Amino acid sequence: MRQTGALRLSDSGPDHARPMMVSERGQVQRDLFQPFYVRVAPMLRGYIFRVCGDQALTDDIFQESFLRFLRTVRWNAPERQQKALIFKIAARLIIDNFRRIKFNPPDAAAPTEDPEPAAIARQNGLEPDMKSVFDALKPRDRSLLWLAYVEGYTHQEIAGMTGLNAKSIKVLLFRLRESFGASLRSKGYGLEEQS
Amino acid sequence: MKTAACPMEDQVRQGLAEGDGDPTLRDHAARCPVCRDVLAVSDWMLRFRDLTLDEMKADELRPTSGELWDLARAGRSIDLVAARRALKPIYLYRKIAWFVSAAGSAALVLLEFEKIKSLLASLLGLDVIAAMLKEGGKTGASSSALQLAVLPATLGLAGILFLVLVTSSKGTRAKEDSSLRIHKEFSNKEKQ
Q1: Where are the domains of chain A?
Q2: pTM for this predicted structure
Q3: What confidence score (pLDDT) does residue A145 get?
Q4: Which of A16, B72, B82, B164 gives A70 a disulfide partner, CB atoms 3.0 to 4.6 angstroms apart?
């Protein structure tokens, strides 16, 4: 069993049973965290990367999110709640970061007009149109779309993550669906055919 | 602006995101105009997610879960109150050491003044300086430029030495205080 130095020192005292329990609990939590990390980490990294669009920033926010998550998580909570917590932390960190550095992506000002050359998107391994359509959105809209349609969170849950009102989320997502749908149609993704 | 809404929208989105191919949800989405749009956008977004994950699969997932766990534990083990308490005896004994050495030096100078005086006089160069100052005091304005420069230079050097000692001691303390303050602010933010 893995024990810290502090726990080993306490073992010689009369109250040695309690530190052992703490250590065992730590080990159990560590064992719980490992599969959770394997399941959630790629999704979280994908979300942060698509919203931020910067690899170094993604790595920073990703690590900080998990560190904060590990300080606050309740391991007896359902996994959906735990997953929502880490996405909430990441969403807040992204918002803080945009506020702090006054991030203003060039594509936010000029939305639809060819934000990235197709060749670069092809190098990234994505269909050029898909990436350019998504990158043309504002960071907040990208975040909302991802949380709603990729992670499948409810309006209430997204409201909790972003610090907005649930009704506002509903309206924002409705508008976004309309405009994004139109954008997809204009790029030839033919929404009617898919449905 | 009126928003078209469907009570099953959340369910449809959640089902699609979880890869749940529930036929009733699909049927509903095909009939409901709101959920038809939801389905279309969802299909597109899920395809985009798959492409993103495929693209990122090449990168090794760093840090590992174990590294993150250890980092988080290290961060959590910093207890500012405990750290201050642990440093308290060090600060106290440092003050005592300063006081004892100052008092001891003063006592030594008072008790052994004559010996110190003779020792200083025997040091190479000091007797020359003393003689020069003595001569300068006698002759007044006729003192040479070198003689006039010796006293202020000695005093200046002593002053600089004293300032360096004082500021380095205060600077160390200020750094310790500011780092503790930053840690405290950070943990307050965490709590909020």
Answers
A1: 19-103, 110-190
A2: 0.58
A3: 92
A4: B72
